[in-house]
Write a structure and sequence with these properties.
The protein has two domains: 3-77; 93-151, no CATH class. It has three helices and six strands. It has helices at 3-38, 45-77, 125-130; strands at 93-96, 100-104, 108-112, 115-121, 138-141, 144-151.
Length: 152
């Protein structure tokens, strides 16, 4: 599999990750809206108000998650799959002696061509270290030396 094919596969995994998160959060919002609408005032007024307040908090939390998802979509829209270079940048695959990284969004461990990659944000601690680095450079993360073997 070519470098571009691997990047495309990792990128699609990230898009799917964002899509699933969006669907989950939208389901939570929809469920909470239905619960808010169906809740009727009972003789136990305080209990009713507490329930409504809890649902409102859940709605606010879900809205914040949607904002985070929007940011992830913005980051993905800036990735140019065909772009490669000698310096780690958004959209780079960085092969190290410890692990393989895809500088994109924090989507966890992904598999492409039978190899494991970690989709990491450029604003994460390890992402910040790898950003702007070149082949054969060494970074220190959590007391471990990590040598960059290749940048795709």
């Amino acid at each position: 599999m070519s470098q571009i094919k691997i990047k495309e596969a990792l990128f699609r995994h990230c898009e799917l990750f964002v899509k699933k998160r969006t669907e989950t959060v939208q389901e939570i919002i929809s469920s909470n809206q239905k619960a808010l609408q169906s809740e009727t005032k009972s003789s136990a007024g305080d209990k009713h108000e507490t329930g409504r307040a809890m649902l409102q908090l859940e709605m606010e939390k879900a809205s914040q998650q949607l904002e985070g998802i929007a940011i992830m979509n913005q980051i993905l829209s800036k990735i140019v799959i065909a772009k490669s270079g000698e310096v780690g940048h958004l959209g780079s695959i960085i092969i190290t002696d410890k692990a393989n990284y895809f500088l994109s969004i924090s989507a966890g461990q992904l598999v492409a061509e039978g190899k494991n990659y970690f989709a990491i944000s450029v604003s994460s601690p390890i992402g910040k270290l790898l950003l702007g680095k070149r082949k054969n450079e060494v970074v220190v993360f959590n007391g471990n030396q990590i040598k960059i073997i290749q940048i795709l």
